[in-house]
């Protein structure tokens, strides 16, 4: 049984339909990429899963329906959504942002337990703990946002365009950390990317969305060989 | 010189009342993004509750504590019942709701307690004491102390507790807070509760000198507006500094420069000057809007 299962999910913003029946699965311990052009519905798919957009259809997480659950309760269930734009608390310190990652599981105790594990991947965060999060560079903000999500030790990590606006070396570092956590802790990952090359390098499987529907899906190797995907998304 | 310092202390005492109410305005501005025009009437209403308690023989400090608890519940209730249904509507809708609340509470207060002016006792004796050659009113010192303690306790709550952290997070970025498992609407309700507590403190401290009537906080609210704008409408520290500063400015100008009747226009002048020269206030953030 997959960890996450979407079947024929539709979503709309007011009168505008953004998803026209998306079906996908993420298995326990798997990294799955969600590719597509601007406006294809990638972000909306993540938002449908984390409960931040109105939707219909079947959504199940760990065998239970999540179609009607609030974002707060989904965070408690173990879904960590690192949203578009990183979702940091710009006026709060780096450390306060990190502490908020532990909020779902009882802030103080969880943070004490989980912080060393997370900081092992981001040692610089401890040196910058009292800096205002909004004054970090783009790459540092993305790292902080990822670190904050990891503090809750989620079962499913959802990343929305983590590579956006970042230098290639930073992107490589970020995906290396995600792969390591996936391998070490079995954390499942659903990553939305426009940068298909980077995403396919880390993922086992991928889905390509076009105008709110899954157009192509398969293993990452299959998609790399798929002519349409290659031309439209990989650029060769 | 001694008289000057006396004026300064008097100004600080009045300023600490403005600061408390200004801080209430800032808390709500940060939580809900609007000015709560009913903040003064909420304070008046809770001060009348305190009066009723004392009138029934409850001693001052138990009545004070009980009033703060009632004010907290009242603030939370107002947010849940009136603000939450319109929280996703345009800001002007929320503003109109607070103005409606102002009118309704003013009427309700008059209906329950009558329009005649009542006296409200102060917990501090109407005496003076000498500190370093300066004669200072005990009542002023007490008012300053109570407001200071209230603000300090709130600050510690926001700074050192998990709920305080979650509350600040919700105010800064509610969508992100929700994704981290925070029940944001309850956090906003708590913010309204704390604002009502601050208002109740301001009301109970102001009542002995302005006397108790349904519109007693109207003028205080205008000072608080000016103080909040002076400090920066989104800055809690700004509200406190702005309140104290405004209290001293208005008091000194009233004593030495203009006649005391012109104190309120002086506050409005401060408001106007700040809005023209430095709209973000002393400690506020510049609002940058990407177009």
Describe the structure.
The complex is a heterodimer of chains A (236) and B (291). With 236 residues, chain A is α/β, with parallel strands linked by helices. Helices cover 40% and strands 27% of the residues of chain A. In chain A, the strands form two sheets. Chain A has a six-stranded mixed beta sheet, with helices on both faces. Chain A has a four-stranded antiparallel beta sheet with strand order 2-1-4-5, covered by helices on one side. With 291 residues, chain B is an all-alpha fold. Chain B has a two-stranded antiparallel ribbon with strand order 1-2. In chain B, a hairpin with a 2-residue loop joins strand 1 and strand 2. The longest helix of chain B has 31 residues. Chain B starts with a helix and ends in a 14-residue tail after the last helix. Chains A and B meet through helix 2 and helix 3 of A and helix 6 and helix 7 of B.
Record the SSE blueprint:
The complex is a heterodimer of chains A (236) and B (291).
Chain A: E1 4-13, E2 16-26, E3 31-36, H1 42-50, E4 55-61, E5 64-65, H2 71-77, E6 79-82, H3 94-101, H4 107-119, H5 124-127, H6 138-151, E7 156-160, H7 168-185, E8 188-193, H8 196-202, E9 205-210, E10 213-219, H9 220-225, H10 227-234
Parallel strand pairs in A: 3-8, 3-9, 6-7, 7-8
Antiparallel strand pairs in A: 1-2, 1-4, 4-5, 9-10
Chain B: H1 2-32, H2 39-55, H3 60-83, H4 91-113, E1 128-131, E2 134-137, H5 138-160, H6 162-172, H7 174-179, H8 184-210, H9 217-231, H10 236-257, H11 263-277
Antiparallel strand pairs in B: 1-2
Helix pairs in contact in B: 1-5, 1-8, 1-9, 1-10, 2-3, 2-4, 2-8, 2-9, 3-8, 5-6, 5-8, 6-8, 9-10, 9-11, 10-11
Task: Summarize this entry quickly.
The complex is a heterodimer of chains A (236) and B (291). Chain A has 236 residues and is of the alpha/beta class.
